[in-house]
Amino acid sequence: MDASFTAEQDEIRRTLRELLRKRCGPEALRAALDTPDGQDPALWPLLAGRLGLPGLALPEAYDGVGCSTAELALAAEETGRVLAPTPLLATCALAAPLVLALGSEAQRAALLPRLASGALTAALAVPGAALATALALTGDNGGEWAGGGRAGGVQARRAGERWLLYGQVEQVLDGHSAGLLLVAAHTGGFARSRTLLFLVRGNADGLVRVRRTALDATRPQARLQLRDVEGELLGEDGADVLGALATVGDAAAAVLACEAVGAADRALERTVEYVGQREQFGRAIGSFQAVKHRLADVYVGVQAARSAAYYAAWATAGREPVGGLALAQALEALRRAAAEGIQLHGGIGFTWEHEAHLYFKRAAGDELLFGPVHRLRAHAADAARLFEDREVAV
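-> structure tokens emitted (394 positions)
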């Protein structure tokens, strides 16, 4: 394994960091969060037009850049540093890979170039609070998260040549603003119970979308109500939907891990700057040994999480499922960096006006959506069969 970055990867990081430094300062971020969509409407077209960010991990055959998950993860690390509220995660790490993996050639040709150009954004909608389950991050995704033949979730039924979807979905990332929705629905009843993915237009008849108040305002969420909404089956009826969700989930976890590392690194950086300026007893508090020890522990955690996240992003090319474990370490590092930042900023650290609480909410919000950390690790241990009883040869 070559741990060094290529010149192209270094250029992606440098260019993106410079652009985001100019466009995503604390004031610009708060202004974006107050908009109806919770995003800066000019930022995504800029990232798409100047950097080709939406198509970074899509094949050149569909007007993408042709890079890998590793490049997308490095880009996510930079957006995580400034908590940029963009459709990067929902569109590029969740929806687009599923269209690429499961879609028919006609569906790929119609959708992927528009996703790569940034003209179309997309979101993955799974019932309940089951996103981590559907992506196989905290357990087997073959359970009843999509309805399981019982009432609840989203149900799909045939009406002649059409598919109609009925139900409600909570906690859909960017679901209020995405132009395309990938809705997981249960169909087949008890006899032929299965979960399928359907393409639903954002302006479809019978679809009601409401932006929800979320713990992490930088990660906008929506509630979807589907009342006999017409959907188009993604791919074929017999496609391995659960397998595709698990594969995409591992890659998305690697992207999320890098994003969390970027946020943790920035939170630590801001804290180090502050303790070098704030004085008590005639000296900077950063010179106190106790403060040094606390920040040194945070630094070690962030660097360890960065190594794990980079490895997970690199390993996706070889189909080695370590994304969930890297995500657990990154979320833990972010939570600790944000918490120490609040503590060491003293009286201003917990105020609404300071940005420290935004990083803490990002850590807590991501754990609610994709964790928690102990379940991510438990699933990784189960997958590796660490705690199974084994016969010992004598």
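The chain has a mean pLDDT of 91.
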